[in-house]
Structure to design on (460 residues):
């Protein structure tokens, strides 16, 4: 595993933005916005020579970018839109007419960009990451400026050639890069998990404790708004599949079966489907840790708030525990479906959800059961493929969020049964296996829609 330590903010992991895919929508939007900013800072003579902007998409961005709305996200970013403040309805209207172009400022002039300037390249591209995009400012046939970006899952992007910020250049009071190191820090400093994570977050972001708590509350509110919208919205989802929304039907069924022992699971399924269906429709969701897995944590936190009646302080503590697990997977494997398959997305979300539930039932966070719950959840997602039909985040993605939440709940039950200390496999070990499994998995099963369930579309 990587021996450096984690310097990711909770609010970089939990990001607000439009669906349906953090790696295909939020990441490309951020990359395009960054390119726009760089164009604004070019020498005037270069700006004056420019006559076009071209975008080249490779790997999974090319294979499933149309279904994920990558082209719309790029245009939005070039126009200066930011994920959290994007109007999802306005985003969906972009590029509906292939002849429409959109103005991008380059110095004191504008260059129009439309669908003809976005190229979905099917040829192999030599890149260290599966999701690669190259943006070029050109003058006739000459390239004036070129930037290469990698969308690495969860809305995180890397620009080629950008100096890496090494862990030792960022200061956190309690550094860790593995679960073993995290546990050692807790022991050495006699800290609770909440105290350690809060201290690191405050050091990383410069926010006060009250500001961190306030932002956690905002993130939970964004999640729960997505659930509530999804419980009300009926009809079919965008795209050629014409998939009908199920969340409102399940929610009504759960209310009618409130005295049944099954109603609890139906409520949970309804909440997870609701947020996932909002994501599939391009609505505003929270990456948890990705948009494709943005139904698991919202569903579980909504259940925890409205059925278990946990207070805000407890929900915040659960969110911090969930973030710690997401950090460890991102740092030592990947949360990208294009890198890990769906075990990197829903598998990680399920582990985060199991940690959330486990922390919520404890007055003081005991790390053993939290680790065991997360390990169990990941272990039983190993090898899960990412093979969306038509490139849409719909089948199997939406139902898979509900299944991931149910697995999270069961992992929590197993870990809190009093036998957490009997767990033979550590979280660090299972993340190591996860990384190796993702590396060995055929590219056809990693967000390219070239195999598996994606091929069943012809039978639908």
């Amino acid at each position: 595993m990587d021996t450096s330590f984690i310097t990711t903010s909770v609010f970089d992991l939990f990001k607000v933005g439009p669906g349906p895919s953090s790696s295909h929508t939020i990441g490309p939007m951020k990359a395009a916005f960054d390119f726009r900013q760089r164009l604004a800072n070019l020498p005037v003579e270069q700006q004056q020579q420019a006559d076009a902007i071209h975008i080249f998409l490779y790997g999974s961005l090319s294979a499933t970018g149309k279904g994920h709305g990558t082209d719309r996200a790029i245009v939005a970013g070039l126009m200066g839109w930011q994920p959290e403040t994007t109007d999802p309805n306005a985003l969906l209207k972009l590029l509906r007419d292939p002849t429409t172009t959109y103005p991008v400022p380059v110095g004191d002039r504008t260059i129009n960009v439309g669908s003809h300037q976005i190229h979905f390249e099917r040829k192999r591209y030599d890149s260290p990451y599966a999701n690669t995009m190259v943006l070029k400012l050109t003058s006739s046939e000459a390239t004036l400026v070129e930037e290469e970006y990698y969308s690495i899952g969860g809305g995180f992007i890397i620009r080629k050639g950008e100096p890496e910020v090494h862990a030792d250049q960022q200061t956190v009071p309690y550094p860790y890069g593995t679960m073993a190191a995290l546990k050692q820090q807790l022991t050495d400093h006699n800290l609770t998990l909440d105290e350690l994570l809060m201290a690191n977050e405050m050091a990383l972001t410069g926010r006060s404790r009250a500001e961190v708590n306030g932002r956690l509350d905002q993130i939970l509110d964004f999640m729960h708004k997505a659930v509530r919208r999804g419980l009300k919205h009926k009809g079919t989802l965008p795209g050629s599949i014409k998939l009908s929304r199920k969340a409102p039907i399940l929610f009504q069924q759960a209310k009618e079966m409130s005295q049944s022992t099954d109603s609890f699971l139906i409520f949970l399924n309804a909440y997870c489907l609701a947020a996932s269906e909002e994501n599939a429709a391009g609505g505003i969701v929270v990456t948890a840790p990705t948009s494709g897995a943005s139904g698991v944590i919202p569903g579980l936190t909504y259940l925890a708030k409205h059925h278990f009646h946990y207070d805000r302080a407890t929900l915040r503590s659960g969110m911090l525990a969930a973030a710690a697990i997401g950090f460890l997977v991102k740092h030592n494997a990947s949360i990208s479906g294009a890198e890990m398959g769906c075990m990197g997305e829903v598998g990680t979300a399920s582990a985060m959800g199991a940690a959330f539930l486990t922390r919520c039932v404890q007055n003081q966070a005991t790390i053993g059961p939290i680790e065991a719950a997360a390990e169990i959840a990941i272990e039983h997602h190993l090898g899960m493929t990412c093979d969306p039909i038509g490139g849409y985040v719909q089948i199997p993605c939406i139902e898979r969020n509900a299944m991931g939440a149910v697995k999270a709940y069961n992992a929590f039950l197993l870990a809190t049964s009093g036998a957490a200390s009997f767990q033979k496999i550590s979280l660090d070990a299972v993340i190591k296996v996860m990384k190796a499994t993702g590396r060995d998995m055929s590219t056809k099963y990693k967000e390219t829609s070239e195999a598996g369930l994606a091929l069943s579309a012809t039978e639908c």
